[in-house]
Amino acid sequence: MTSSINSKLLDDMLFLRQLATDTVEASRVKPGSSVGQYGPNVTGKTLIRPGGRDCYPAFWIRDFAMSLGSGLISHEETTHALFLTALRQAPEDWHTKTGSFVPRGSIADHITFQGRPIFFPGTIDDFENQGGPWGRYPSLDDHFYFIEMAWHLAIIAGQEKILTADIDGTSMIKRLDLSFAVPPATDDSELVRCGEENRGVSFGFTDSVVHTGHLLFCSLLRYRAARQMAELHQRLQNGDAAQKYSRIADAIFASLPRIFGHESGLLRASTGMSAQPDVWGSAFAVYSGILKNTDAAGVVRALLQAFRNGTISWKGNIRHVPTDADFSSSSAWEQVVGNYPKNRYQNGAYWNTPTGWVCFAISQISEHDAQQIATDYVNELRDGDFRQDDDHGSPYECIHPENDFRQNPVYMTSVTCPLEAFRRLGWLADIRDCADRKTLGSASALLP
Length: 448
Fold this sequence. Notes:
It is a single chain. It is built from twelve helices and 16 strands. By secondary structure, it is an alpha+beta fold. It has one domain (7-446): Glycosyltransferase (Alpha/alpha barrel), CATH 1.50.10. Strand 4 and strand 5 form a beta hairpin. Helix 6 (216-235) runs antiparallel to helix 7.
């Protein structure tokens, strides 16, 4: 997909690319380095955490994998991240002290600078007491982001040999198979599903939200991972395995719009607890190419109308739930873990991470509105640019106009994810100079 761009938009995109480059650099933790009281990094090579300054002092699998499509992370850094994650994959079933359960093959939510796997949100490095209210099962989405990292190296970087590499007695492809099988899919729809008794986080950017039933975002990730696993097994000439994963992807493709449809035109986040319409998931479904044309058109129209109504965007940042679809006057979602009042963090604040997905979706029917969101987004980044001084922190993790709320400065996916989406839209001058798929990000290679 390519789009016409004006000089202001081009200037904004060039600014964004440099800001993203500097944000990723600020997020790097070299061997032997620490972040505040956390560290040093003893994993042997550079790790990339979710942001700079004091932001999230550990290696988060999710944030790293989501940033690969920006083109700002080296293959060497990706190789280290992938093999470190594989080495920390749960070798056997494990019951935590808090009553949670880590199945064999589980992928960590994050890994400390000391190399210890933490499978649940809610703590940076408390290995013994992880889990509890943050889920019976580990964060489910990381299992598919692990596959994203491997696919990126094997296909985008052309390093297929990593698939047969031996990691502590188990090949990489076998570890990917184990990882894929952990998140529960319990019916013919092949959608990820959980109840309160076996709940796991659907998506780390809503890890404080209790979702049950069929899970939208995790199912979108499972669809993409199934396509990627089919390709990886095909490269290894494992025809039966490739066909199995293709059938899973086909089943998700067929069932997802029907299961998650909502009267608003958006997709709902889940079918059980906290089943509010999900702006992020709806936009990502369009971005991932999982929706048929008629289904995608309905979602895109709903996103455009919500933007024009002022219910999903502020300064180009995007809310999880439209303001007119909150569960109650005191919470955007039905149930939230932790002390997060309305309009803070994942319970109603505005985020940059999905801005590019929303722009991509809306651009299908209104280039003007999509570019307006992007302009609003970059204007906020310019005003708050962290490179000015310590009193400025853009890109922030999330913001809200109430009391000028700002949280976690120098946040990586706030610029890397939109950058990838804007590349797909053709809004960056160098998009025409990309010689091959290695230069483009992972999502661009997944274009239908």
